């Protein structure tokens, strides 16, 4: 029992001391004119996927690009703060991609937005508040695109999206309008059927006329071929015909 107590007495302080000693080498802290940043990175090499935005650290700054990486990937916890030490943004990275709940704050500490991320894509509920903490907009993301009802409480306006595109539902028809629409569709169908029949008959007539025209042309050609030799024979007969001797009244030749 005393051995366990002594072990805990020495082990716990050593763990705390180890973490406090190594923490400055794990976490990175940088700042710019507007914010201070605290985050972790990983040296793991990945194959970036197109359509996803990756965040990495290089040259003393955080960078991001769609489908590309050129430094140490941000990994695990991330915190952005105003120089007043007030939270500005907080979330988590998984090998360069945003994941889980991400939040942003106004300078007075009031929550501004909440958004859920899944594998680098906005997925799930989104909420926006004014600097007084009142909800002014809410909606839903599906694979990084607006989907479903989006309500703007400030403007008292609602827009419905379907995979990022504004969706306009067809208006509901009354019983009379449905009956009228049905009759119109029926009449249009009948007219189409009549037109198809007329087109079919015209096509048949055109085909028959074409056939008859070919037959007439063939007959005319045969007729021309039959007449041509007779005309030639008659011409040569006239040209080379021998004169018959004249016959006297006494029956003797001249």
Structure in a nutshell:
With 254 residues, the protein is α+β, with helices and mostly antiparallel strands.
Whole-angstrom Rg:
48 Å
Question: Main β-sheet: number of strands, strand sense, barrel status?
Answer: 14 strands, antiparallel
Unreliably modeled segments: 15-22
Spatial separation of the terminal alpha carbons: 174 Å
Fraction of helical residues? 25-40%
* Overall number of strands: 14
Give the SSE order as H and E letters: HEEEEEEEEEEEEEEH
Q: Which word captures the global form?
A: elongated
Residue-averaged pLDDT? 85
Helical run tally: 2
Structural class estimated from helices and strands: alpha+beta
Question: Strand fraction band?
Answer: 35-45%
What topology emerges from the helices and strands here?
Blueprint: H1 2-26, E1 28-31, E2 35-42, E3 53-58, E4 61-66, E5 72-82, E6 87-94, E7 97-105, E8 111-118, E9 121-129, E10 135-142, E11 145-146, E12 148-152, E13 157-162, E14 165-166, H2 175-240
Antiparallel strand pairs: 1-2, 2-5, 3-4, 3-5, 5-6, 6-7, 7-8, 8-9, 9-10, 10-11, 10-12, 12-13, 13-14
Description:
This protein is an alpha+beta fold and 254 residues long. Among the domains are: 25-109, no CATH class; 123-191, no CATH class. It is 36% helix and 36% strand. The chain has two helices and 14 strands. Strands 1, 2, 3, 4, 5, 6, 7, 8, 9, 10, 11, 12, 13 and 14 form a 14-stranded antiparallel sheet that branches.
């Amino acid at each position: 029992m005393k051995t366990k107590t002594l072990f805990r007495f020495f082990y716990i302080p050593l763990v705390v001391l180890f973490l406090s000693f190594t923490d400055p080498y794990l976490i990175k802290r940088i700042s710019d004119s507007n914010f201070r940043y605290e985050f972790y990175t990983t040296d793991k090499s990945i194959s970036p996927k197109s359509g996803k935005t990756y965040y990495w650290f290089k040259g003393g700054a955080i960078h991001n690009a769609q489908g590309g990486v050129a430094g140490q990937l941000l990994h695990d916890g991330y915190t952005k703060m105003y120089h007043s030490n007030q939270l500005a943004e907080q979330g988590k990275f998984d090998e360069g991609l945003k994941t889980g709940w991400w939040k942003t704050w106004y300078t007075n500490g009031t929550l501004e937005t909440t958004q859920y991320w899944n594998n680098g894509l906005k997925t799930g509920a989104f909420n926006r508040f004014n600097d007084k903490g009142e909800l002014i907009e809410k909606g839903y993301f599906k694979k990084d695109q607006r989907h479903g009802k989006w309500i703007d409480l400030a403007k008292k306006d609602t827009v419905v999206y379907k995979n990022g595109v504004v969706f306009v539902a067809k208006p509901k028809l009354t019983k009379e309008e449905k009956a009228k629409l049905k009759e119109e569709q029926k009449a249009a169908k009948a007219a189409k059927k009549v037109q198809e029949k007329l087109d079919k008959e015209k096509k048949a007539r055109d085909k028959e006329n074409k056939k008859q025209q070919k037959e007439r042309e063939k007959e005319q050609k045969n007729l021309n071929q039959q007449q041509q030799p007779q005309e030639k024979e008659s011409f040569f007969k006239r040209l080379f015909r021998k004169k018959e001797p004249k016959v006297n009244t006494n029956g003797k030749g001249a």
